[in-house]
# Entry
Amino acid sequence: MTLQHSRLKMLMRYYLEDGRRVYTLKLMHNGIPTQSAHPARFSPDDKFSQYRLQTKMRFNLLKLDEKEK
# Structure
């Protein structure tokens, strides 16, 4: 274990197996990096929201007026 790994907090991580999330504390699973199971931090001063909205509008992923069926 390197010094860098010893400073990391023990956080939940996951990897996909048969389309399902399998949760673990390991950084690697069978040589494949695991993903963080925690959402990104929220900031009210979001500097990149404009670009996220443009991307969602470009690919028709923005669901403002969609009603539940």
About this structure: Helices lie at 3-7, 49-58. The chain has a mean pLDDT of 84. Residues 42 and 49 are 11 Å apart (CA to CA).
